[in-house]
Amino acid sequence: MKRIITLSLILVFLVLSLNVFSDLAKAESFAGKLKSLGGSWFLNTGEDFYQLNIAPDEFLAEKGIVLEAKMQVELKGVMSEDELVVYSIKKGDEFIAIRDEAGNALWGEDGPKPYVVNPKKCISCRLCVSKCPTDAITMVKGKAVIDEAKCIGCGICADGVGKFKGCPTSAISQKK
């Protein structure tokens, strides 16, 4: 009887996991005007106001994309908690990809560079654990640890998003 219950729970977990991950891959289209507040970009669609998780300015410049306040844009992306994770930006008549279909960042020399934690600086606050959109951060022996295979290089853990301003002790940095 215990085995049946355990197998049933595992099956339910797998089905729920598949539903969560299948939703992540469904990029939707958004259009509106850009707004810059406190170093972050936002999209005003006229009906909603979304904080954007977008690529670094250097990567966008390489793709010929320069963001400006009040600029009308079309984006494709997915909602992750309280922000819009941008997968592509329309330039002219075509969409320029900044993330692959799985949401992995396309910037960096060999693709996205994962983030790492300096355990000497980590104060075990766990703030980064709850903000990671891919659950790549766990606590091991009281210190945050980032699973590089799960990390998409978004930088939320280090730099923050919304009210979360990133690691309070600067213990998290992008791998060089």
CATH level 3 topology of the largest domain:
OB fold (Dihydrolipoamide Acetyltransferase, E2P)
Tell me the number of strands.
Answer: 10
Strand content: 25-35%
CATH architecture of the largest domain: Beta Barrel
Nutshell version of this structure?
By secondary structure, this protein is α+β, with helices and mostly antiparallel strands.
Give the secondary structure arrangement, pairings included.
Layout: H1 2-24, E1 28-37, E2 40-44, E3 49-53, H2 57-62, E4 72-80, E5 83-91, E6 94-97, E7 115-117, H3 127-131, E8 137-140, E9 143-146, H4 156-159, E10 172-174
Parallel strand pairs: 3-5
Antiparallel strand pairs: 1-2, 1-4, 2-3, 4-5, 5-6, 7-10, 8-9
Which key phrases capture this entry?
globular; 176 residues; 5-stranded mixed barrel; 2 domains; OB fold (Dihydrolipoamide Acetyltransferase, E2P); Alpha-Beta Plaits; 10 strands; alpha+beta; 4 helices; 22% helix; two-stranded antiparallel ribbon
Please characterize this protein's 3D structure.
This protein starts with a helix and ends with a strand. It folds into 2 domains: 1-103, OB fold (Dihydrolipoamide Acetyltransferase, E2P); 115-174, Alpha-Beta Plaits (2-Layer Sandwich). The model is unreliable at 12-25 (pLDDT under 50). It is 22% helix and 32% strand. It has a 5-stranded mixed barrel with strand order 1-2-3-5-4. Strands 7-10 form a two-stranded antiparallel sheet. It is an alpha+beta fold and 176 residues long. It contains 4 helices and 10 strands, in the order αβββαββββαββαβ.
